[in-house]
């Protein structure tokens, strides 16, 4: 870790909000609708409760070793032979996640804004810009996140509110026609969708107040979930469940119905999607930064930042590999189980061992 | 910044300049033809779907210089306008699919068609009767330029012929129809449904009403009545009055309807203008027997009185309210009969109500829903409250 790389709790909060909101939020409604149908709107609030539990365990584990990152504390808890594969797995997870986010973003840009621009050009521009931001280090990245969030998020939410006249409450009925289990099962499984919260596995030593890690993580996550729930609920309320299953980017389809009296911009949805795409940059940059840092730790490199660029060929390859947009989900099938492991199972096991091996001072 | 960082930043800038400077999607406005509306039909007379190119599409595009310097005739298609002075160009194309037909525009137009400003999609009667509407609309749902907010209408006869109309004020047929659809706040003699609503209904296997358009003398257009779409095809039409009654039930009416109520007791004929209308449609299950109750509450005012010049008393208004309520009930029963027995089309969403309120029972009956629906007992109760009598007593 470089000496100047310290961020405050509020910067960590903005970093996590910016990192978690990405284009997947606009496309996610379809996946949930496919699995639970009309009860889609119930999944995200329940998912919030489950995920907060996982985030609590994750941050408690990291806060127990405030001067160490994941590689450091996992080595201390479980030994080198466990720490290495776990850290390599985490590195792969972050790189694959970066590839997934950039691929989905590229597909959305191609589908909505730049149909004739080659996908490789969009992908490469996105990756280079994000890698540049990541290579500046954590502190500039956090500041960029603050600016991006403050500028884009309020505008996005205002644009989204414009479709409320099309909202129909009957699109939420009937409630639980197949019982509560499918919803509960999916909500629990979707802990893995809080992917970027895994950044807290390395973020705590960078905090000026490591004890406030849980505060930054939980508040950031709650803000993100308010936005996610707003987007998903609006999608269902406006489009209805059948059209939701059919639309490729439900979040964008919804905004096509936005009408804003007096506006000279007829295609408001394009403004909306443009703003949302800006939010993909902090996500990609944060993941590239995190993977560069972890790779640097594994090879014992002090100034790791340029690794953000060296990772790009692999990310580019992974992002380009699925032949079409329908193959993306099946190609990245491993992300969800990996996410579940790194957000809940591994932290829970490590925390349990840590409590046993390193009991709090004063306990017998 | 040291020299090495400067080089790096310069290199990065150069790289980004190379890959982002030339925008592949850049297209000047002068090189675009803005499609305002599309009319789709079956290409062959008689409507065979097995011919090589079964689909016909007529696209209406503005000729901007004529739009700006339109003549004294006023509107785009106003009287005295001919093909050489019309401010729009109507391009008709045929194809095996709509994508192919539209692609052929590249052989007829030096400009690239742009669908981002399309206002309406008009479907011909024969196409709607014979073609599967979900397939017909697929291109618009898939095309990234198209908007889900465009209005979908049905033509009585050929949709392409409707594009030949000459609206008096509007500069094009598409703009006329688009503006006309906004009049839904003034009357429920037609229904306004967007592409999103139509797609949602078709995807869910639901029946839906679509606004009807027909040519009237002097090449003018009338938007009124509704086409009944059952299982993705046109099953028949509702008259404007039947459409009104149907929208009273669905609650889609925005008010302002005029109901002409003859009151023999007062020797008067009154026009009651609707204000607020609340509709409640409830499925009832008694001893495994399904029935529906429709309760409608209307608030209105007297817009006009004809006949006996006698001044209104409060008791007279009650008589008017009762007469209006009975009249509405009668019209609602009439449209219910037509939809249930003649068309067997659940455009009022009865099945959806059962599904939402009684999902388990719905699972058991959805297979035979059409038969159940056609003989479903429906109780209608209308309550009319007249709040005002206008500016005179």
Automatic annotation (TrEMBL), chain A:
Its main location: membrane. Keywords: Germination, Membrane, Transmembrane, Transmembrane helix, Transport. Pfam families: Spore_permease. It is a multi-pass membrane protein. The chain crosses the membrane at residues 41-61, 81-101, 113-134, 146-167, 220-248, 268-290, 302-319, 339-358. The keyword Cell cycle does not apply. The keyword Transmembrane applies. It is found in: Membrane. GO terms for biological process: spore germination. GO terms for cellular component: membrane. Gene3D superfamilies: Amino acid/polyamine transporter I (1.20.1740.10). Belongs to the amino acid-polyamine-organocation (APC) superfamily. Spore germination protein (SGP) (TC 2.A.3.9) family. PANTHER family: SPORE GERMINATION PROTEIN A2 (PTHR34975:SF2). This is Spore germination protein YndE. It comes from Moorella mulderi DSM 14980.
UniProtKB/TrEMBL annotation, chain B:
Pfam families: Spore_GerAC, Spore_GerAC_N. The keyword Cell inner membrane does not apply. Gene3D superfamilies: Nutrient germinant receptor protein C, domain 3. One of its GO terms (cellular component) is membrane. Keywords: Germination, Lipoprotein, Membrane, Palmitate, Signal. The keyword Signal applies. One of its GO terms (biological process) is spore germination. Residues 224-390 form the Spore germination GerAC-like C-terminal domain. It is found in: Membrane. InterPro entries: GerAC_N (IPR057336), Spore_GerAC-like (IPR008844), Spore_GerAC-like_C (IPR046953), Spore_GerAC_C_sf (IPR038501). Its main location: membrane. It comes from the Bacteria. Residues 25-214 form the Spore germination protein N-terminal domain. It is a lipid-anchor. NCBIfam families: spore_ger_x_C. PANTHER family: SPORE GERMINATION PROTEIN B3. Belongs to the GerABKC lipoprotein family. This is Spore germination protein B3. It comes from Moorella mulderi DSM 14980. The lineage of its organism: Bacteria, Bacillati, Bacillota, Clostridia, Neomoorellales. The gene is gerBC_2.
């Amino acid at each position: 870790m470089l000496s100047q790389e310290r961020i405050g709790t509020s910067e960590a909060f903005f970093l996590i909000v910016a990192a978690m909101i990405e284009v997947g939020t606009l496309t996610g409604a379809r996946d949930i609708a496919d699995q639970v149908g009309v009860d889609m709107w119930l999944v995200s609030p329940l998912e919030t409760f489950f995920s907060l539990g996982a985030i609590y365990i994750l941050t408690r584990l990291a806060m127990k070793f405030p001067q160490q990152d994941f590689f450091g504390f996992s080595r201390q808890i479980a030994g080198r032979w466990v720490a290495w594969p776990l850290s390599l797995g985490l590195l792969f997870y972050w790189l694959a996640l970066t590839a997934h986010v950039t691929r989905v973003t590229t597909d959305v840009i191609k589908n909505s804004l730049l149909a004739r621009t080659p996908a490789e050009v969009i992908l490469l521009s996105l990756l280079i810009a994000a890698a540049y931001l990541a290579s500046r280090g954590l502190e500039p990245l956090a500041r960029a996140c603050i600016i991006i969030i403050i500028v884009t998020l309020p505008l996005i939410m205002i644009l989204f509110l414009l479709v409320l006249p099309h909202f129909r409450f009957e699109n939420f009925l009937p409630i639980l026609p197949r019982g509560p289990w499918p919803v509960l099962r999916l909500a629990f499984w979707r802990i893995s969708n809080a992917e970027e919260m895994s950044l807290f596995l390395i973020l705590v030593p960078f905090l000026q107040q490591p004890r406030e890690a849980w505060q930054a993580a939980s508040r950031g996550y709650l803000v993100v979930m308010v936005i996610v729930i707003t987007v998903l609920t609006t999608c269902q309320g406006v489009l209805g469940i059948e059209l939701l299953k059919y639309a490729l980017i439900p979040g964008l389809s919804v905004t096509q119905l936005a009408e804003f009296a007096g506006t000279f911009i007829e295609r408001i949805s394009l403004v909306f999607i443009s703003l949302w795409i800006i939010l993909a940059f902090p996500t990609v940059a944060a993941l590239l930064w995190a993977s560069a840092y972890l790779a640097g730790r594994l090879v014992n490199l002090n100034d790791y930042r340029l690794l953000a660029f060296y990772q790009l060929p692999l990310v580019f390859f992974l992002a380009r590999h699925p032949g079409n947009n329908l193959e993306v989900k099946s190609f990245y099938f491993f992300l969800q189980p990996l996410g579940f492991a790194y957000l809940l199972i591994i932290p829970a096991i490590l925390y349990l061992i840590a409590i046993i091996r390193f009991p709090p001072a004063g306990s017998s | 910044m040291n020299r090495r960082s400067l080089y790096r930043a310069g290199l990065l800038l150069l790289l980004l300049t190379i890959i982002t400077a030339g925008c592949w999607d850049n297209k000047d406005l002068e090189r675009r033809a803005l499609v305002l509306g599309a009319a789709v039909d079956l290409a062959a007379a008689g409507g065979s779907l097995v011919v090589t190119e079964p689909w016909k599409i007529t696209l209406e595009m503005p000729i901007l210089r004529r739009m700006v310097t339109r003549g004294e005739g006023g509107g785009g298609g106003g009287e005295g306008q001919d093909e050489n002075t019309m401010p729009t160009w109507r391009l008709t194309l045929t194809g095996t699919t709509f994508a192919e037909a539209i692609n052929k525009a590249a052989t007829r137009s030096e400009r690239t068609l742009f669908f981002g400003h399309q206002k309406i999609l008009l479907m011909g009667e024969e196409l709607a009767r014979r073609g599967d509407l979900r397939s017909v609309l697929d291109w618009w749902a898939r095309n990234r330029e198209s908007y889900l907010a465009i209005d979908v209408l049905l033509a009585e006869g050929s949709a392409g012929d409707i594009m030949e109309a000459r609206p008096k004020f509007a500069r094009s047929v598409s703009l006329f129809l688009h503006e006309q659809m906004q009049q839904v706040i003034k009357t429920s003699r037609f229904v306004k449904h967007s592409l999103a609503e139509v797609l949602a209904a078709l995807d869910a296997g639901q029946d839906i009403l679509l606004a009807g358009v027909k040519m009237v003398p002097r090449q003018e257009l009338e938007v009124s009545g509704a086409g009944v779409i059952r299982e993705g095809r046109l099953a028949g039409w509702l008259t404007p009055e039947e459409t009104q009654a149907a929208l009273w039930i669905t609650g889609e009416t925005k008010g302002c309807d005029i109901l002409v109520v003859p009151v023999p007791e007062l020797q008067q004929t009154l026009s009651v203008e609707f204000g607020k209308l609340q509709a409640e449609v409830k499925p009832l299950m008694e001893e495994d027997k399904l029935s529906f109750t429709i309760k409608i509450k209307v608030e209105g005012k007297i817009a006009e009185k004809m006949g006996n010049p006698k001044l209104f008393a409060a008791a007279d208004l009650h008589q008017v309210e009762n007469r209006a309520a009975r009249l509405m009930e009668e019209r609602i029963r009439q449209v219910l009969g037509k939809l249930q027995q003649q068309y067997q089309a659940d455009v009022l969403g009865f099945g959806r109500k059962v599904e939402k309120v009684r999902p388990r029972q719905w699972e058991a009956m959805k297979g035979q829903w059409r038969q159940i629906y056609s003989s479903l007992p429906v109780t209608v109760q209308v309550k009319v409250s007249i709040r005002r009598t206008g500016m005179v007593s």
